[in-house]
Amino acid sequence: MATFPIINMEKLYGQDRAATMEMIKDACENWGFFELVNHGISIELMDTVERLTKEHYKKCMEQRFKEMVASKGLEAVQNEIDDLDWESTFFLSHLPRSNMLDIPDLVEDYRKAMKEFAAGIEKLAEELLDLLCENLGLEKGYLKKAFYGSNGPTFGTKVSNYPPCPKPDLIKGLRAHTDAGGIILLFQDDQVSGLQLLKDGEWIDVPPMRHSIVINIGDQLEVITNGKYKSVMHRVIAQTDGNRMSLASFYNPGGDAVIYPAPELLEKEEKAKAYPKFVFQDYMKLYAGLKFQEKEPRFEAMKAMKVSREGA
Fold first, then answer.
1. How far apart are CA 237 and CA 143, in angstroms?
2. Model confidence over 24-44: pLDDT tens digits?
3. Residue 6, C-beta contacts closer than 8 angstroms, at least 6 positions apart
4. Is the Cβ–Cβ distance between 88 and 57 less than 8 Å?
5. Chain-wide mean pLDDT for the chain?
6. Contact of 244 with 268, CB cutoff 8 Å
7. Which of 191, 238, 249 is nearest to 87 (CA)?
8. What's the rounded Cα separation, in Å, for the pair 25 and 223?
9. 142, 92, 122, 112: which is closest to 49 by C-alpha?
């Protein structure tokens, strides 16, 4: 079994650049996931964000989660639950507008730290998109432009806690899915594991590493690369002890961005079987009801929608 790809970004700026770019290319083509170290976001900031995220959960969310568990009788379930995730979450929107002031129970220190963290993640996302462009032979900025729409990309962070679960064999922390959007940057707990990806029919642990950022490919990058890079099914396994923190930042196309395979990546014989062309918000409407199912029928549905629109 190949080892999970870990990329040291410092090596992009020296004699190891070519080998590091090749590692990124291999990770995108064969894993859909990789882990970044030395990515430029300060360790002190990450430690602050982690501390404040865990404090916020304890103070503002833990009791609500326990009440939800009690109201649904989840402590005593006997059969597998397939319509619920064992997670406590809230969503911070950064672009095109921030919702941070709209969330009443965030303390000012947390808002400030998350604003700084989001700025670092946004910069890292755009740097990564240009590295992918370089590997794909696309002009610099192509992917950011493809995501742009009329108001720029959409960008936000899902803040999750996965509390200890009494029945992890019956309740998933987060059910298996691919991510709908563009590129996902995850700051995960390094003490409590749980994230797994599906590779060659096997579930593989994504190793928790201190101060790393885990990257995964979303459905939109699969479309733009016409399947050269693929989004991958992943899930979170709940644990019986330990509360796992997860901050997943989604750098996605704008709602009205038109997504389609990059013409430079289409060989002549591929044009007939190319991925569909669609408006991102139309895909998101479909995804909302089909998140925990295979992605291929979603792509087929978008092809059918395109045909029906053209025929109208």
1. 32
2. 999 999 999 999 999 999 999
3. 34, 35, 36, 37, 207, 209, 212
4. yes
5. 94
6. no
7. 238
8. 17
9. 112
The C-alpha atoms of residue 66 and residue 33 are separated, in whole angstroms, by: 33
d(CA 139, CA 162): 40
Which distant-in-sequence residues (6+ apart) come within 8 Å of 111 by Cβ? 100, 101
Closest-CA residue to 187 (of 89, 6, 41, 55): 41
Q: If pLDDT is split at 50, 70 and 90, which confidence band does 21 have?
A: very high
Q: For residue 160, give the 3-state DSSP assignment.
A: strand
- Quick check: pTM over 0.70? yes
Does 22 have pLDDT greater than 70?
yes
Share of the chain above pLDDT 70, in %: 96
Q: Is the predicted pLDDT of residue 308 greater than 50, yes or no?
A: no
- Pairing mode, strands 195-199 and 183-188: unpaired
Q: Say whether pLDDT at 310 is over 90.
A: no
Q: Mind listing the pLDDT tens digit for each residue in 115-140?
A: 999 999 999 999 999 999 999 999 99
Q: E strands along the chain, which residues?
A: 6-8, 33-37, 88-95, 154-162, 174-177, 183-188, 195-199, 202-205, 213-217, 234-236, 244-252, 258-259, 278-279
Residue found by looking up tokens 């430029």 in the block: 40
Whether 286 contacts 297, CB under 8 Å: no
Six-digit token pair at 173?
Answer: 């922390």
Report H helices in 137-224: 142-146, 219-224
- The position carrying tokens 């360790």 is 43
